[in-house]
Design a protein that fits this description.
Length: 236
């Protein structure tokens, strides 16, 4: 006859085995599935202390080729990031490449400012656009809490302070998409299209706000800090 002690040990072993099985990491097939909702607190300004939009990540160089046009395709990647979110699409590589082709054909130069980005998004997809001049952190957060991503033109050299995945100290002119924020950590969450590690990357409020500069009127990348501080919003 099996003693009570042995039965207890067998049951305990089974329970531990089950727990260990549940703790095994599962394979992540889609970056959109990695974002879990977190509890929020509404602050005195009426905005939650954190918010995050989940959407497909669109790399600037989807085939990991960095010659032209991919070297300067961050504007197109940012537009596609918002486009796929608005259309609730999770594109495969062939779809991305086709959509990239349409966008690249609409650009007359490698580097375009937010006004031209808005015009392309309107012409191709029929979106309404809004350019926000001299945006504040609260301005950006207000759009995000309405589940509206924000396209940021930026000095990549400034972003390099916190994103060492860039090569050569970061690009002079860059674009990315803000998807969320966390007041507790004073960080924005973005899809930084410029690196393969850019999905849901975090930048501090200070660094990201300092980086914001539209493509300069001189059209000289190295003069990016002379570009106006403005951001772009696309609306259906």
């Amino acid at each position: 006859m099996i003693s009570a002690k042995i039965i207890f040990l067998l049951l305990a072993s089974c329970l531990l085995s089950a727990c260990n099985t549940q703790d095994l990491p599962r394979q992540i097939e889609n970056v959109m599935e990695t974002v879990a909702p977190q509890p929020t607190t509404i602050k005195s300004d009426g905005l939650p202390d954190k918010h995050l939009i989940s959407t497909a990540f669109v790399p600037q160089a989807p085939q990991k080729l960095w010659d032209q046009p991919w070297q300067d395709a961050c504007e197109e990647a940012a537009i596609l990031t918002v486009h796929y979110y608005l259309e609730k699409e999770n594109p495969d590589l062939d779809t991305m490449l086709k959509d990239y082709k349409d966008l690249l054909a609409s650009s007359t130069t490698h580097d375009i400012n937010v006004k031209d980005m808005g015009k392309i998004a309107t012409d191709l997809y029929g979106y309404q656009t809004k350019i926000v001049e001299d945006p504040t952190i609260k301005d950006i957060k207000a759009y995000l809490t309405k589940d509206i991503p924000v396209i940021i033109p930026a000095n990549g050299k400034t972003l390099y302070k916190e994103n060492k995945h860039f090569k050569s100290g970061g690009p002079w002119y860059h674009n990315l998409v803000i998807l969320g924020y966390d007041d507790g950590k004073s960080q924005f969450t973005v899809h930084d299209v410029g690196t393969q590690f850019g999905a849901y990357f975090r930048y501090s409020y200070t660094t990201l706000m300092d980086s914001i500069h539209d493509f300069p009127e001189s059209k000289i990348k190295e003069e990016i800090d002379n570009g106006q501080k403005r951001v772009l919003v696309l609306l259906k």
